[in-house]
Specification:
The complex is a heterodimer of chains A (401) and B (261). Chain A is mostly helical and 401 residues long. Chain A has 14 helices and 1 strand. Chain A has one domain: Formate dehydrogenase/DMSO reductase fold (Up-down Bundle). The longest helix of chain A is centred in the N-terminal third of the chain and has 31 residues. By secondary structure, chain B is an alpha+beta fold. Chain B has one domain: 2-Layer Sandwich (Alpha-Beta Plaits). Helices cover 23% and strands 16% of the residues of chain B. Classes of the chains: A mainly alpha (401), B alpha+beta (261). At the A-B interface, helix 5, helix 6 and strand 1 of A face strand 2, helix 4, helix 5 and strand 6 of B. Strand 1 of chain A pairs antiparallel with strand 2 of chain B, so a sheet runs across the interface. Chain B: One of its GO terms (molecular function) is 4 iron, 4 sulfur cluster binding. Chain B: This is Molybdopterin-containing oxidoreductase family iron-sulfur binding subunit. Chain B: Keywords: 4Fe-4S, Iron, Iron-sulfur, Membrane, Metal-binding, Transmembrane, Transmembrane helix. Chain B: InterPro entries: 4Fe4S_Fe-S-bd, 4Fe4S_Fe_S_CS, DsrO-like, ET_IronSulfur_Cluster-Binding, TAT_signal, TAT_signal_bac_arc.
């Protein structure tokens, strides 16, 4: 492999980015230490809303980690040559984002020091228990896949490794969706549709993250993505965003149809304050309709930055969607006595309130910081910049003059 | 959480005390009943099973349960809640009541159409098929052979998945450092906890503190005993009156039954 020579300006940029990512990560770690030392009393979490902002960011990263591997899968599993040069970056981001997401979830545990107990105990009736198997195997398979991609001696096995990683990521995201799908107690969850919905969400969020990272790397290297390839990728993102919208509509329509769920749906979609605002404003308008407009308007999508902006909006929309789903799902009270008004000193029957505290926000953002830092190091140490063979792509019919 | 409790008028009648003496006497006679099955007990106490000797595993022949008569449970009365807090050392002061632990709480419910009201204590329902145990990744949430659902505070990692899974909001997460704990009832910051049916008392042949106080104060709204023993008072009552399991649609086979709702 050729040893990269960096200019002094590039060297400086690398260390500035490293320091920036390191600072955000360090602030998050300090916040986690403070929460561990003082207890969750310093957070906005309560005994009604006990999964807060760190879960929103952590689960977003874990779901997107699975989806970001999609780019590699399209190349290796479905044989699309234009995607193959992107496979190493796709695999690297998958590993990094899963690690960052898990770090946030683990640091938010009440007893993070005991996490090894979860790793060494097997409870097959627990979806968390499944995940203790699903995540390490994902790391292993994607690591193996990267090895087969980047080591010529192992190239012969990349399809098998890619296929294994592809199947496993579907299983893994099924597991993430099922964390909620298997919860029978709450109106917001207990639905089999959540597993495929999380998979399609992972496609959209993962591709959005990939496009942003790729764009940044190209910009730093003064490269421009070929317009034809850019069009293919933006169409793919648009398709995924539309598919997520379809699942969201089906999920809410079925709930609205069930009499027992109408009060919950009214809360989430109409009367719940911040939750309808984030659903309609954050997810539907900012995270879905606006990106679709940017991606499919014949003149706008070709403008510089339009696809990246759409990708960024998709990520913001995804975070809003998860916030509504996770926090809103807990804020709505458990219905123990149908047809009754319920009151208690434990806020039964009352809408839960949740305002994230500064330590929680820092811990949540450190997920992005950890992912960013590892990516900056990864792409410098190893050769992850997609190297498009333009002649080969033209021959394959992907590019046109 | 005691700061949130509502003081109520206490019934100072001595009926409860005599009943308690009776309970003690029958508990002591439990062994005799075991070796003399022909003896017909006129009234079976709430603790008719002998203490569990140290080192002996809990028996699945027993299914501890509770019957709550909501017609005798007065709105505003929190004697059971206070007894639980005292017994289990739930004495910490919390700035935000939403972050405090409540192992047992009083719920007031009103039928929307008729306006009819009920008051009842809500606590861990000690399900035969507990969702909290199903979802626990470490095995900290567990069900004893005798049906008591517990959290092992030594291996709970504080993930709160059990709180997500519980349909009864019966579990609390300890949000802050704790002091002055009851040595028999270990609790810990960062762990999840819930009603233990006062397992440390039950193992000594006593009844849970909430039930004892409710009875002692003359309310007689709570009954504790072995649901598997057809001769226990709770079994006979459950066989005679209509009882309700909260969210029976989930088919969790609850250890706590309600009468009058």
């Amino acid at each position: 492999m050729k040893i990269e020579q960096y200019t002094p300006a590039e060297e400086r940029l690398f260390y500035i980015l490293l320091a920036l990512g390191g600072l955000v990560s360090a602030l998050g770690l300090a916040a986690a230490y403070y929460m561990e030392h003082s207890g969750h009393v310093v957070t906005g979490m309560t005994n009604q809303v006990f999964w807060g902002l760190p879960h929103v960011f952590g689960i977003f990263l874990i779901v997107a980690a699975s989806g970001v591997l999609n780019v590699a899968s399209i190349g290796s599993v479905f044989g699309k040559k234009a995607y193959k040069p992107r496979a190493p970056l796709s695999g690297l981001l998958a590993i990094i984002m899963l690690a960052a997401g898990l770090a946030i979830i683990m640091l938010d545990l009440g007893r993070a020091d005991r996490v090894l107990i979860a790793a060494t105990h097997v409870n097959l009736t627990s979806v968390f228990g499944w995940n203790m198997i699903l995540y390490p195997v994902f790391f292993g398979l994607v690591g193996l896949y990267l090895w087969t991609l980047m080591d010529r001696r192992m190239n012969a096995y990349y399809k098998a490794a890619g296929f294994s990683a592809f199947i496993w990521r579907l299983v893994m995201t099924t597991g993430t969706g099922s964390i909620f799908g298997f919860v029978v107690a709450r109106q917001a969850y207990q639905s089999a549709i959540l597993a495929p919905m999380f998979i399609i969400m992972s496609f959209a969020w993962g591709l959005a993250v990939f496009l942003l990272v790729q764009r940044s790397m190209y910009a730093w290297n003064n490269m421009e993505l070929n317009p034809a390839l850019r069009q293919r990728l933006k169409n793919l993102l648009g398709t995924f965003i539309t598919a997520v919208l379809y699942f969201v509509i089906v999920y809410h329509l079925t709930n609205i149809y069930y009499a027992k769920e109408t009060a919950f749906e009214h809360f989430i979609l109409v009367s719940g304050g911040v939750y309808p605002l984030l659903f309609w404003g954050g997810y539907v308008v900012v995270g879905t309709l606006l990106p679709l407009f940017l991606l499919y308007h014949p003149a706008i999508w070709q403008k510089s930055g339009a696809v990246s902006f759409a990708a960024a909006l998709t990520i913001i929309g995804g975070l809003c969607q998860l916030y509504v789903f996770i926090i809103g799902g807990q804020a709505f009270p458990l219905e123990m006595f149908p047809g009754m008004e319920v009151t208690s000193t434990f806020f039964d029957g009352a809408i839960g309130t949740y305002v994230p505290s500064v330590p929680e926000i820092l811990l949540s953002l450190s997920g992005i910081g950890i992912g960013f830092t590892l990516t900056v190091i990864g792409v410098r140490v190893l050769r992850f910049l997609p190297q498009d063979d333009v002649a080969m792509l033209k021959d394959a019919g992907y590019l046109h003059d | 959480m005691s700061e949130h409790h509502i003081n109520t008028e206490k019934d100072s009648g001595n009926g409860g005390a005599s009943r308690r003496n009776f309970i003690g006497a029958v508990a002591a006679a439990g062994g005799l009943a075991a070796i003399a099955p022909g003896i017909h007990l006129v009234q079976v106490s709430q603790a008719n099973t002998p203490p569990r000797p140290a080192g002996e595993a809990a028996s699945k022949a027993v299914r501890w349960g509770m019957l709550i008569d909501t017609t005798k449970c007065a709105s505003g009365c929190t004697d059971c809640v206070k007894a639980c807090a005292t017994e289990n050392g739930i004495n910490e002061t919390v700035k935000d009541a939403r972050q405090g632990s409540q192992w047992i709480r009083k719920i007031d419910i009103k039928e929307v159409k008729t306006g009819r009201t009920h008051s009842l204590p809500m606590l861990c329902q000690h399900c035969a098929n507990p969702p909290c145990v199903d979802v626990c990744p470490t095995g900290a949430s567990m069900k004893r052979a005798d049906g008591i659902v517990l959290v092992d505070r030594h291996i709970c990692i504080g993930c709160r998945y059990c709180m997500m899974a519980c349909p009864y909001k019966a579990r609390s997460f300890v949000h802050q450092p704790l002091t002055e704990q009851n040595p028999e009832v270990p609790r810990g910051q960062g762990c999840v906890e819930s009603c233990t049916f006062c397992v440390h008392r039950v193992d000594k042949g006593q009844i849970p503190a909430c039930v004892e106080t409710c009875t002692k104060e003359g309310h007689n709204a709570m009954l504790f005993g072995d649901l598997n023993d057809p001769n226990s008072e709770i079994s006979r009552r459950v066989a005679q009156v209509t009882t309700t399991q909260v969210r029976a649609d989930l088919k969790l086979d609850l250890g706590v039954r309600y009468q009058g709702i």
